[in-house]
Automatic annotation (TrEMBL):
Pfam families: MIC19_MIC25. The keyword ATP-binding does not apply. It is found in: Mitochondrion inner membrane. GO terms for cellular component: MICOS complex. Transmembrane segments: none annotated. It is a lipid-anchor. One of its GO terms (biological process) is inner mitochondrial membrane organization. Keywords: Disulfide bond, Lipoprotein, Membrane, Mitochondrion, Mitochondrion inner membrane, Myristate. The keyword Lipid biosynthesis does not apply. This is MICOS complex subunit MIC19. InterPro entries: MIC19/MIC25, MICOS_subunit_Mic19.
Length: 158
């Protein structure tokens, strides 16, 4: 092969490589400095590869997503703070109401009346099962004690 012929081959290979490598470029038609041989339209002196346009779009989308992420994180933080304040207020209100209710009923202490006689009656019934009449004297004393305690609580004339 002759060197001149090789030069033609190389030029063809370079042209093919440029066409293949730059087929994704997006021509920008503005100042009429060049003309696209395929369409006949005039174009600018430069072209922007489509992957650069896509990269720019992705960057813009990424910026939007970051802004939205920041906004959502701020909103979540605000909602969490609001929830904590609400929980704190509810807890405080519950504790106050609980304290008030327990304070209201604390002073009512029940002391069993005639507890000793009651124990003796129960003991007698256990020891004499089936013979309840043998415990009638202690049971009678217990009933009398309860009656006296009831009358003393009610006061005279009640």
């Amino acid at each position: 092969m002759h060197i001149g012929e090789m030069g033609g081959c190389i030029e063809e290979e370079v042209d093919k490589y440029i066409r293949d490598a730059h087929c994704d470029f997006l021509p920008i038609y503005t100042d009429g400095s060049k003309q696209d041989p395929r369409t006949g339209r005039t174009s600018a002196a430069f072209s922007v590869p489509e992957y650069k346009v896509a990269a720019h779009q992705l960057e813009q989308r990424d910026k939007q997503l970051k802004k939205q992420d920041t906004l959502y994180r701020e909103q979540v933080t605000k909602l969490e703070e609001r929830g904590k304040r609400f929980y704190s207020a509810i807890t405080e209100s519950y504790q106050k109401a609980s304290w008030e209710v327990s304070a209201k009923f604390r002073h009512y202490q029940i002391n069993p009346v005639c507890a000793d006689l009651q124990r003796e009656v129960l003991k007698c019934y256990r020891e004499n099962s089936g013979q309840t009449l043998s415990c009638s004297q202690i049971a009678s004393l217990y009933l009398q004690c309860v009656s006296e305690a009831r009358q003393s609580k009610m006061g005279p004339g009640d």
